[in-house]
Amino acid sequence: MKKTITLFILIVLSTIASSQNRLASTSKVPNQKTVVQKVIVQKDSVAKSKTLSDLPVLVKDSIQIIKKKYKTYKKSAHASYYADKFNGKKTSSGTKFNNNKYTAAHRKLPFGTKLKITNEANGKSVVIEVTDRGPFSRGREIDLTKKAFKEIVANQNTGVMTVTIEVEDN
After folding, report:
1. How far apart, in whole angstroms, are the C-alpha atoms of residue 69 and residue 30?
2. Shortest CA distance to 40 belongs to which of 1, 3, 6, 14?
3. Residue 84, SS3?
4. What are 164's strand-pairing partners?
5. Is 17 exposed, middle or buried (CB count within 10 Å of its CB: 0-12, 13-18, 19+)?
């Protein structure tokens, strides 16, 4: 029964793809591409299957880029990065810390807040999420993960940099 269902789905998808390709090639719209989305069907849902025209098919003819807006939170803030010894430990938000992700620690901003951190020396920036509390060193505003820090730092041998912190504006 499973093989029959799988075969049916493959036939339907190939039929849709070939008919959409014929439509795209005969249409007058230049550079039109057809994309067939993956369809996941559970065992019991084949009996309730929809017609071929109801299956999800998406025709794309343009790409829209959405730019996020950010509000300046603090300029000339001092940023550092987490030590490797914190890998795998629980953060204040309850998630496991991973130095290879784009997260940070901040004393006051709510967990889940998206921040754009820009190195003032070279203009490079990275978007991170607040998942922890800290830093607990005087004069430091934010602790980044090692991956985020190394991506924007000007000198790879330093452990501190001056950054601008911007909060994502919803």
Report:
1. 33
2. 6
3. helix
4. 118
5. middle
Percent of the chain clearing pLDDT 90 (strictly above): 56
**Sole residue written with tokens 């499973």:** 2
Two tokens, residue 151: 């991506």
Most confident of 33-37, 44-48, 134-138: 134-138
Task: Give one word for 11, left, alpha or beta, with left for phi > 0 and alpha for psi -120 to 50.
Answer: alpha
CA diameter of the chain = 67
**Amino acid at residue number 97:** F
- Quick check: 59 and 35 in contact, CB under 8 A? yes
- Rounded to whole angstroms, the Cα distance separating 32 from 26 reads 11
Q: Are the C-beta atoms of 142 and 163 separated by less than 8 Å?
A: yes
* Tokens coding 83: 């030590």
Nearest of 121, 108, 119 to residue 151 by alpha carbon: 119
Lowest-confidence segment of 19-33, 52-66, 154-168 by average pLDDT: 19-33
Closest listed residue to residue 143, CA positions, set 134, 155, 131: 134
